[in-house]
Amino acid sequence: PFEVEFVASGLTRTVPAGTSILSVAEQEGLPVFSSCEQGTCGTCVTAIVSGRADHRDSLLSQAERESNEQLCICVSRAEPGAGPLRL
Ligand code: FES
Question: What is the separation, in whole angstroms, between the first and last Cα of the chain?
């Protein structure tokens, strides 16, 4: 589990193991977009305000991952031990 703050709405929520950031956002009624939910289409790509992503998609390039500027919220998570992810 890890913490995510959705900056635009001011909500902080815990993302449990086995649950995606996307699912948590949808449960809260936040305006998120998704399609494949498998980390391949890019529809759910979201900007990272702060924190470090553990990228689990198969879409972003190595350079994009290392830039830590965005993540696919349908599959990617927070890097363990790196503190909350702010999006
Ligand atoms: Fe397709 Fe996340 S919904 S990459």
Answer: 16
Asked if 77 and 21 count as a contact pair (C-beta separation under 8 A), the reply is yes
Backbone angles phi, psi at 6, to 5 degrees: -95, 100
Cβ of 44 closer than 6 Å to ligand 1, yes or no, is yes
Query: Which pTM does this prediction carry?
Result: 0.95
pLDDT in tens, 60-72: 999 999 999 999 9
Tell me if 41 CB under 6 Å of ligand 1: yes
Q: Taking a C-beta distance cutoff of 8 angstroms, is the pair 77, 83 a contact? A: no
Query: Tokens 């503190």 sit at which residue?
Result: 83
Q: Give the C-alpha distances (Å, rounded to integers) separating 6 from 26, 56, 75.
A: 12, 20, 16
